[in-house]
Amino acid sequence: xxxxxxRLEQDGSCYLILTTPRTGSxxxxxxxxxxxxxxxxxxxxxxEHQARVTGGxxxxxxxxxxxxxxxxxxxxxxxxxxxxxWRQLQSYLLPALRDRSEPSNQSGLTAAFPNLKVIHLRRRxxxxxxxxxxxxxxxxxxxxxxxxxxxxxxxxxxxMELTRQLERAIKADNRAIDGFLKHCDVPVLDLxxxxxxxxxxxxxxxxxTFLGLGPAVPPGLxxxxxxxxxxxxDAWFEAYRTFTQGEPA
Length: 249
Known about the structure:
- With 249 residues, this protein is an alpha/beta fold.
- Helix content is 51%, strand content 10%.
- It has one domain: P-loop containing nucleotide triphosphate hydrolases (Rossmann fold, 3-Layer(aba) Sandwich).
- A 4-stranded parallel beta sheet has the order 2-1-3-4, sandwiched between helices.
- Helix 1 crosses helix 9 (200-211), helix 4 crosses helix 5 and helix 6 crosses helix 10.
- The chain is globular and about 55 Å long.
- The N and C termini lie far apart (50 Å).
- The relative contact order is 0.18.
């Protein structure tokens, strides 16, 4: 995959899962990994992940990306996949990859990710998304794989104010993503958390079809992540609805 010039040839494919926190992205990545044909999507551009991979060495974003992409292409049949939060893309990846000869943000992105496709994962219910975000901050639990619930206290006024701020930030990020993708000349698949949670296998099949990867979903594939208990979710939601009563949607 390395040509005579030493540059990576564009004979592999790339896809990004573009999202915001608490949209089911861990679940989607896990399903795509289990498929066996869609690479190994992960949050490679989170600072802590990059530091772990590079051993804390000072490595440029371009070098890190090229080595990561090449290794993935070789290991996973020419597929590179990554999950990226909007704010990581906006404040870290786009500035680092920008082609100085081109004014648009997209030029550097598409050059860095050959044959790029984007899966845009969002959550319709931003209130519940913000509540999930606030609970994760409170408990430090971002992924749950067992039925043992994390130690989450009842909602306080401070939790409700944090949730309101988080929901406003989520809505602002959603608007920014919509604007970015509108001018991004790459194929985009829009997915909703609610559909993913309701029918994971069907959502996975939709993704594989969009990506042009593999056969049907492997039989017996099951999500390995679980939701927090309904009573906890509902108690927080009712408290938040009361807290924000009368505010514009």
